[in-house]
Amino acid sequence: MPIETDVLIIGCGIAGAAAALQLAQDRQRQITIITRAHESDETNTRYAQGGIVADGEGDSPDLLVEDVLRAGAGLSWPPAVRLLAEEGPGLVERVLIEECRVPFDRNARGEISRTREGGHSVSRILHVGDTTGHAIEQTMLARLRELPNVTLLTGMTAVDLITSSHHSHDPLAVYLPITCHGAYVLDRIENAIHRILAPVTILATGGVGRIYRHTTNPPGARGDGLAMAYRAGARVINAEYIQFHPTTLAVVGADNFLISEAVRGEGARLYTPDGRHFMDTYAPKWGDLAPRDVVARAIHHEMLDHGYPHVLLDLASAMDAARIRERFPSIYATCLQAGVDITAEPIPVVPAAHYFCGGVHVDLWGRSTLEGLYAIGEVSCSGVHGANRLASTSLLEGLVWGDRAGRDVRARDDLLRVATDAIPPWQNVSEGVAADPVLVYRDARTIQNIMWLYVGLARNTHRLVRALQDLNHLWGVIDEFYRLTRLNDNLIGLRNMAQSAWIVTRAAWHNRQSRGTHYREDAADHEFAGLGDTEGPLPNSIAEF
Fold first, then answer.
1. Global pTM?
2. Which residues are catalytically annotated?
């Protein structure tokens, strides 16, 4: 029998948790949250180091709007940015500080501390050391556990969204608007696929960073939500805009651990390995606090032009050792484990894929183009980030759109349940051979290398054409593998990685304009050249990918 609920939320980071907190105020409404991880706090939110935007001294919504629009390189949607600036700081106060009691850092006077990050005009970033996301995640989950009408299920991997047009027993349903009625979900404990039916489904699955070889993202950021929504027929926009974080740890054998932008906010500066400070050349106004795409490309250019394996980020010259250990305990400990003492020496850093500025197109209430389907947080594209995200606005966007999606659902009376016998159970769950982990790993690595080499920080037509050719071939192999093999989480993730990589690459190929994070070496004008396709047809296009 299917599992029935009033609202299904896929993902439990700040966006999913905010939606659940809002929805749970209606005590008659049952909310079911699922996450593929076995630990509920294993989310993208957990790994957010820097902080979250709130009110700063001398700040105003107009000033925040100006900063966001500047960083977005002319592609941010002004109504969405205005909404973020006007509703966001109040929600930080009411939801995070008052309701969830997030222990934000305070100064000697007991006031909440605020710092400044790249692209911001004033100090307005609230933080909990360098583990802000983890603190937010822990406190929000603790609050959710207190609510009797919220059920949180771990170890549950969404396989596909259920829509009447694709899955209904009624053949005439194909003529109706595509409507989402929940999801098929792999229970990783029972090794069974369940139907979870709901009149409302909210995607809060995070981003796509794991489609790249070098990324700051956790293993679950495979593009699951993006791929599922795309297959169901939802509109996806701005997928070419992948933000690369300019500073991740570059030590052989260590992961690309993120070195927060807050480090530069506290005065750290970037140097070449031979001791030359270079950011004033690329961004005279902002220097080391320039928007992320500018800093990432500056590092990229320095590495390419001079053959550097990395550049250096010097915090030790700007802050004393005790303060470094207090302000950045996680970064200090992780770097020390990798052999770098940041209190005494600079940190070797390189850029890595960090944040997805595009996604499932949503309106100001988080509604997608499919009936019954909302998308919030990094999986969505509300228009706030445009072509480049302003630092520390991602957590705020998740909070705002999560709360708004919850409010919108509570106010609607037009959401109807699907009959339980109208949607068939998943077929062939126990048939087929087990997935060979070596093949899954190899195909995933191939996708990551294709994206890193051909669809990375700097793109051009030849690389993108090669990427599409390789991805189209790989899709055929993976699709057959998927259909003949017994499902598990890694195989589902591999399929979604392939789909998401193709979505990103196709968007990058189509857009010959250099703007924000989408940098085309062969653009006629790197400053906002006109949009248009490359000459000739798309090679090996997949009509129903």
1. 0.89
2. 292
